[in-house]
């Protein structure tokens, strides 16, 4: 696609839409003044009628250009032309009797429905692409479904060994470390901000916590590899120094430059604002009547929190933890830079492990051949990871719906 010409087309379409809006509004006002008639709608709706009339043909041709083999040169000319024709057709229809508001609302309804259809089609496209390539992978003669889900040796880049157990073990191991780090910090901060902090303190602390959510994950990866990973290895070496006299001078803990603990700590820091924000919303959504009833019976703030608020919010808090886990196991940059690439099954957090996302990046790096089991295995890993995260999200949504029905009467 010719991107300079494409950008020129977008600029031209934006100008046509603005022109149609201004022309429609001005023309409607002039008609009302000349004929001393009352407009059927406000003048602004006539402007929006012209603008949407210019926008719809351009969007339709743009979508067709994604799915049909139409040359980009043709699209760069046809899309602005269709936008201009649509604007002229709508502008010539403007009259004092035209119910522009009703037509604009109908066009917006169609626009919203089209947006929903695009989102659904995109999701279906992602799922079908994963499913198709995954079936190709499992249909290869060198691949066994049983070995993929039960094998403990993964060497897809050097040999046809596709035992994915170490990958999923590393994924859940790092995710568990991240949850152990993030869950108490996020939950306690949410409890403080929702139950104990003054409104002014909350206005100061909450933006600081949410700043963490806006940091790019690659920056977290740099922080993990430059700061946390060396500190974790130094801590492991320090433990070895303390324990070595009791074990005959031998090292007790194997340490590596990259480790599951380093990746898990930084990933936990990354998902703290996620857990904190969701938990804060859940705790604040507990009906006020429950708090007032407990306080009316003589309970303190801490007793009300422990015996009333947290039990009532427990399903929502569990849903927040599940959503955080699904976010953690799908993380890529932190584990790529800090966890390692060795398929290793170990409970020692100071050793390096690999995860599903790390291997997907490694398999798709370079110029892969999309008909080889090596490349197709990345799609199989992605499909399984998609199913796992989808299961976490569905379970979390079910828990939230259950809590909503439970307290619907309050």
The CATH homologous superfamily of the largest domain is termed: MetI-like
- The secondary-structure element order is HHHHHEEHHHHHHHHH
Distance between the termini: 57 Å
Annotation, overall tally of beta strands: 2
CATH architecture of the largest domain: Orthogonal Bundle
The CATH class of the largest domain is identified as Mainly Alpha
Parts with pLDDT < 50 across at least 5 consecutive residues:
none
Helix amount: over 70%
Structural class: mainly alpha
Strand content: under 5%
Largest sheet, strands/sense/barrel: 2 strands, antiparallel
- Tell me the overall shape: extended
What gyration radius follows from the Cα positions, in whole Å?
29 Å
The strand line-up of the biggest sheet is 1-2
Main location: membrane
Subcellular location: Cell inner membrane; Cell membrane
Family: Belongs to the binding-protein-dependent transport system permease family. CysTW subfamily.
Domain ABC transmembrane type-1: 168-396
